[in-house]
């Protein structure tokens, strides 16, 4: 009777190993260049210089920024100083504009 059954079937092959985990994205260095440019686009002027200096090496890695030199650093710092002065002027002009609008609106109501 054992001749009729034959040898037992071979065991099934082992399952394939699980795929490797996705790369960690906890680091700003792994952000795509497009996202970095979007972040830079929506920054306030006063925050731009701080971020640019903080991630300058990453911008270089993506080919967005040239190698840092003393002249580039000084121009960034001068740009920040000028931008902060313009921010103060812009805030002053916005305050004056709002005051004029309120004054004109109150004239219409009276």
- Helices and strands: which structural class? mainly alpha
Distance between the termini: 113 Å
- Low-confidence parts: 101-110
Give the biggest beta sheet.
none
Given the structure, what is the number of helices?
Answer: 5
The pLDDT mean sits at: 74
Order of helices and strands: HHHHH
Approximately how much helix is present in the residues?
A: 55-70%
Give me a quick take on this structure.
Residues 1-24 have a biased composition (Pro residues). By secondary structure, this protein is mainly alpha-helical. It has helices at 2-5, 33-41, 45-54, 56-61, 70-109.
Provide keyphrases for this structure.
mainly alpha, 5 helices, 63% helix, 110 residues, 0% strand, disordered C terminus
Your description of this structure?
- By secondary structure, this protein is an all-alpha fold.
- 63% of the residues lie in helices and 0% in strands.
- It contains 5 helices and no strands.
- The protein has helices at 2-5, 33-41, 45-54, 56-61, 70-109.
- Helix 3 (45-54) packs antiparallel against helix 5 (70-109).
- The chain is rod-shaped and about 95 Å long.
Give the helix/strand layout.
Blueprint: H1 2-5, H2 33-41, H3 45-54, H4 56-61, H5 70-109
Helix pairs in contact: 3-5
Protein name: F-box domain-containing protein
Biased composition (Pro residues): 1-24
Region (Disordered): 1-27
């Amino acid at each position: 009777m054992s001749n009729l059954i034959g040898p037992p079937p071979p065991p099934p092959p082992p399952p394939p190993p699980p795929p490797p985990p996705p790369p960690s994205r906890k680091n700003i260095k792994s952000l795509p260049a497009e996202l970095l440019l979007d972040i830079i686009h929506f920054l306030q002027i006063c925050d731009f210089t701080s971020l640019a200096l903080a991630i300058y090496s990453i911008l270089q890695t993506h080919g967005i920024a040239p190698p840092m030199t003393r002249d580039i650093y000084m121009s960034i710092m001068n740009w920040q100083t000028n931008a902060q002065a313009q921010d103060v002027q812009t805030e002053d002009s916005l305050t004056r504009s709002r005051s004029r609008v309120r004054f004109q609106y109150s004239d219409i109501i009276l």
